[in-house]
Amino acid sequence: MTKKDIFLHLRFPFSLFLMPIYWLGISQQIESDFVKNFWIFLILHLLIYPASNAFNSYFDKDEGSIGGLKNPPKVDIKLWYAANVFDGLGVIFAILMVGTWFGILVILYIAVSRMYSHPKSRLKKYPFLSWAIVGLFQGALVFMMVYTFGQNLTIKDFFVATNVSNAPLWLGSLFSALILWAVYPITQVYQHEEDARNGDRTMSMLLGIRGTFIFCMLFFSLSIISSYFFLEVKHFQRFLIFCIPIAIFMNWWFLKVWKDESMANFKYTMILNLMASLLLNICFLTMIFKQ
Asked: Which one of 78, 96, 187, 256 is at 20 to 30 Å from 270 when CA atoms are compared?
């Protein structure tokens, strides 16, 4: 593999899709530590997430389109080494620049991420388990990590804390998980053949193409309901406004897929991912600056 091939498989732009959870966590902080939050951002989005992408690509060896990469280059052992280097740097910086407990949770995240992809464990082939893990780790856990360690609190503090609307912070973790649970199956909807070749049975395969859309709309609705109980009224209203274009596009796409299932393809999946991530990033960023 060339350096360019490795860079492509790290899929840095894919970090944009997970970034809303980071901004949501920041938006709920009371006494933010800018330096800690800066390091948390770098560690997660430039080291840990890309390493997870590379590790997954190495063991999947996909020949078709994957998340954020339409024509993935062929992989070899160099990609595995790159994933290890990025994970190693992520752990070192996590412990040195943020704290020991943050580093421990980063190690836990890495371990579960690797179990998701590695052939000896391959959690990816279990539809409910893999779906649950994505929401719990990329959503709930990351929200808790950002909120807690970005303002020098303890994990115990997180579970007794409330936000300005007097909602428990664990509800923010549930809100984050629901967002990921809504989005995750739709990212698999065009990969059924590729996943089947790898021996995986994903949530989208279990639900079917049409069922995937219905399922995702249901959990998208649940995320909106949870936001009502978690966010301030003005922030809930803002979240609703930013969700309207996402809902319109998803329903428009669903109608196309209902008539022709070949419309459940890489192109429309990436449009939805990009639209949702950009809108939610902007939404949660405005919550920070409107405090």
From this structure: 78
